[in-house]
Design brief:
547 residues, Luciferase, domain 3, GMP Synthetase, Chain A, domain 3, 3 domains, 14-stranded mixed sheet, 28% helix, globular, binds adenosine-5'-diphosphate
């Protein structure tokens, strides 16, 4: 053995910040203001403000390891906190602004947040729990809006203004050396299938994930890109785009609170965004908006969709109408989040049905991540594209436990059990067919709720479809299709069942149907099946039976 001669140089957030400020100081963070001229700041200005913010936080008593929370939309100040907090050695805790008050209070207390930075427009939401945050020592409000409701906090924690605090500080903060394995940021899972759990990212995992985001195997952003980050910075690091932008020099487009299709499409058209990332429900909303008007999406060279399975029609219609190839990615809070992206293999002609087939995969295993599928006994299954099992992953940006909760049931011999069920083929393309908790177990066989939803949403009369398993005396469980029809759409349960019959095996076709005005969504816009199961158990909706 000879020792390596390489420098033991720490992979930390300060290094990302320094690179963006120095090499790409002229790249921009552009925040949408709802119309008119957006707010612009260069990366050099963002970095200077990050230095000032770190100075202000240190003055407030924030020491290495302390948690500083953000309760913010995607905007410039949130980006400044993304750099200042980890780079000063503290831990950035991004709070999901859409959590229920009980969950929000619980995670602020569980994480022991010392300071909370909050957008003025979100003060009323935070104020709902302000009497339940005993450990918070200061609130820092971004913007000039009313902060009065926070003053009522029972601890008498001061409520300060972000811009006033920064004005008193110097831009050149002396960033300390940090251990690359120490905590940089903290995010709780959105709790689609259980209570939120805290995932703590290290500097090293953050750096490596950001490098992976830059690679062409994942997002492949370059300095020539203008990236519209629709995915929230309050949940799983906006898929690594903020750090990826500072490493690559890509301009960041931040929508703020304006997530409606009219704003997003105007932003794209005016600022000529080249890439965007969003969950399928946002992409669908943009598509629906474009059905009655002309949209200029010509600047987009690509889009990524993740967080839930994208319906096939979504990929097809975007390509037909706008020439936009949406690529699906897979990941979770526990995986930083990117674990794979479904770029078709070389030789596949864009725009062909075969191309869409590949893009309907959930992803291809990302470089740096290892994946396997296992059966119910934990035995590894083959990579043959047909064997179905639970997906397990490991790697330098995959969590190995949870914050103050080792949760051994979530791990298996050092691999994270994802709770996702799927197949993987010989080239590492994987397909999520369901979540363990959503798969329908009918007579000893599994039915994929995702597959049924996909087929149903391809029916011209159907706007949304969520399929859940409901108890059945003969088969244990059978699928119940919860369908939302388009405003101008008409279809009966019999017609929809007939529509499915030549698409899936006969025994998989649901015989239980209900029609709803809307499918409940989670805080990050995914179909939320828990409330549907409860509504069914409570007899809250009428169920029809087809033959
Ligand atoms: P939560 O687990 O509370 O939903 P996450 O944001 O961590 O919060 O969600 C991760 C989950 O989202 C994955 O485990 C998977 O079920 C789902 N998911 C993510 N990307 C995809 C995709 N491309 N296709 C299907 N499901 C996906």
């Amino acid at each position: 053995m000879i020792p390596s001669t390489m420098q033991d140089f720490p992979l930390d957030v300060a290094a990302i910040l320094r690179h963006g400020a120095r090499v790409h100081g002229g790249s921009e963070c552009v925040t949408w203001t709802g119309g008119g001229e957006p707010h612009r700041a260069t990366f050099a200005e963002v970095a200077a403000n990050a230095g000032r913010l770190a100075g202000a936080l240190a003055r407030l008593g924030v020491r290495p390891g302390a948690r500083v929370a953000t309760f913010c939309w995607n905007n410039q100040e949130h980006l400044e906190a993304y750099f200042a907090v980890p780079a000063m050695g503290a831990v950035l805790h991004t709070l999901n602004i859409r959590l229920f008050p009980e969950q929000l209070a619980h995670i602020v207390n569980h994480a022991d947040d010392q300071v909370v930075i909050v957008d003025d427009t979100l003060v009323p939401l935070l104020a709902r729990v302000v009497d339940r945050l005993p450990a918070v020592e200061a609130f820092v409000v971004v913007g000039d809006g009313d902060a009065g409701p926070l003053e009522a906090n029972p601890n008498g924690a001061p409520v300060m203004r972000y811009h006033e605090l920064l004005a008193a500080e110097e831009p050149d903060h002396p960033w300390p050396a940090v251990d690359e394995r120490s905590a940089a940021s903290l995010c709780y899972t959105s709790g689609t299938t259980g209570d939120p759990k805290g995932v703590v990212y290290s500097h090293r995992s953050t750096f490596l994930h950001a490098m992976a985001v830059l690679s062409a195997s994942l997002v492949g952003i370059t300095e020539a890109d203008r990236v519209l980050a629709i995915v929230p910075m309050f949940h799983v690091n906006a898929w690594g785009l903020p750090y990826g932008a500072f490493l690559s020099g890509a301009t960041l487009h931040m929508p703020g609170p304006f997530l409606q299709p009219e704003h997003l499409t105007e932003f794209i058209a005016r600022e000529r965004s080249t890439l965007s990332s969003a969950v399928p429900t946002i992409w669908s909303a943009i598509l629906a908006y474009g059905e009655t008007r002309e949209l200029d999406l010509s600047s987009l060279r690509g889009g990524t969709s993740g967080g839930a399975a994208a319906p096939r029609v979504l990929l097809e219609r975007f390509e037909e109408r706008y020439g936009l190839r949406i690529i699906q990615g897979w990941g979770m809070t526990e995986t930083s989040p990117l674990g794979g992206m479904a770029f078709p293999p070389p030789g596949v002609e864009p725009g062909t049905p075969e191309d869409v087939d590949w893009r309907m995969k959930s992803g291809r295993v990302a470089p740096g991540v290892e994946m396997r599928i296992v059966d119910a006994d934990g035995a590894e299954l083959p990579w043959d594209g047909t064997a179905v099992g639970e997906i397990e992953v490991r790697g330098p940006w995959i969590t190995g436990s949870y914050h103050r909760d080792p949760a051994p049931e979530k791990f298996h011999d050092g691999w994270l059990r994802t709770g996702d069920i799927g197949t993987i083929d010989g080239r590492g393309y994987f397909q999520i067919t369901d979540r363990v908790k959503d798969v329908i177990k009918s007579g000893g066989e599994w039915i994929s709720s995702v597959e049924l939803e996909n087929h149903l949403m391809a029916h011209p009369a159907v706007a949304e479809a969520a399929v859940i398993g409901v108890p059945d005396p003969r088969w244990d469980e059978r699928p119940l299709a919860c369908v939302v029809l388009r405003e101008d759409g008409e279809a009966t349960a019999e017609e929809l069942a007939a529509f499915l019959r030549d698409k899936v095996a006969r025994w998989q076709v649901p015989e239980y149907w209900t029609f709803l005005d809307e499918v409940p969504k989670t805080t990050v816009g995914k179909f939320y099946k828990g409330p549907l199961r409860k509504m069914h158990a409570d007899g809250a909706f009428k169920v029809e039976r087809t033959g």
